[in-house]
Amino acid sequence: MSTICCIIGTRPEAIKMAPVILKLKERGLSCFVLATGQHTDLLTQALRTFNIMPDRDLSIMRERQSLDYITSAVLTKAGEALDDVKPKVVLVHGDTTTTFASALASFYRKIPVGHVEAGLRSGNLYLPFPEEANRIMVDKLATFWFAPTEIAKNNLLKEGCDPSRIWVTGNTVVDALMMVKGLKGEPEFLKEKLPPHVPLLLVTVHRRESWGKPLESVCEALIEILKSFPRLWIIIPMHKNPLVRETWQRYLSDIPNVILCDALEYDDFVWIMNRSTLILTDSGGIQEEAATLKKPVLILRDVTERPEALSEGTALLAGREPSKIVELALKVLLDDDFRERLLSKSSSPFGEGRAAETIVDILMQYLNANEHCLGE
């Protein structure tokens, strides 16, 4: 059977590709898992939740790595790995630098690329940065486009992608979420820290455009929210980046109601999302997960490439101005009618948890029926 190489480099890629990897193996397809190591511990941690071990880890990560370095290291080392493995298809996910450089390395070898989570667009090349550019370039190089929603499909059609190779699959993060939801109870580290039955605010911030002043503004907003709602508790899983961690610690480490912790195992993170009263984030994936869990989320960005989260999901666009964040957060936390209206419109816009199965079905059809002409 033809080899499919799944390339992953970061924690979100690992979580969202895990259902596809598991489904490929379940169907008996030869699946080679190549980890670039753009993230190290975070990547391994996410894969461990799904009992997946990479077949090869390129271990490219180094402290304070630049985009130039990540791109060149992945391009070179992933290319060498592809020369060894010689897969018939490469699968990449989303919009990371690993995704772009791996797609480019595959293109240089005329290996067909399947882009999982294809077609997302914010309309601003610099927001999010560099992800918007990465996803556009990957879609230019791809052979198969696995779009999570109809809006994503329409974006691809507008850009001239072959309609016969675009499929609306739902988002694989919903598959991953459903696989781990309910597997574990309250995380051990929270049992002595978080009082029972208190309202809980989950906060995650990691994007490059959030570093510095924007993150400081979020910290200022959180302090104001606590002044108006002192019963609230806040949990912040801190990104490994020292620029992010230093800001969190400088502003919030002395506040009793704030729990600063390291990045969480995915099943623990899902438990906390499900326990939360409100989520504040600049993450794309959490917008999808929150809609699935029917949890309100404030997007700490100026634009989103997931408009379904706003129109059909549970999200509100808050930006990074402290006053706007405080206003919306308190409205969700304190206005029961407003919160219920927000939650009542959620209609699972990102799928029902069958994306991986759909993707693998499509790949099997192409490998079985059209293998001789793939890439021509």
UniProtKB/TrEMBL annotation:
InterPro entries: UDP_GlcNAc_Epimerase_2_dom, WecB-like. Gene3D superfamilies: Glycogen Phosphorylase B (3.40.50.2000). The keyword Isomerase applies. It is an enzyme of class 5 (isomerase). Coiled coil: none annotated. Its EC number is 5.1.3.14. The keyword Nucleotidyltransferase does not apply. It comes from the Bacteria. It holds the Pfam family Epimerase_2. Keywords: Isomerase. Residues 25-363 form the UDP-N-acetylglucosamine 2-epimerase domain. Belongs to the UDP-N-acetylglucosamine 2-epimerase family. This is UDP-N-acetylglucosamine 2-epimerase (non-hydrolyzing). It comes from Acetomicrobium flavidum. The lineage of its organism: Bacteria, Thermotogati, Synergistota, Synergistia, Synergistales.
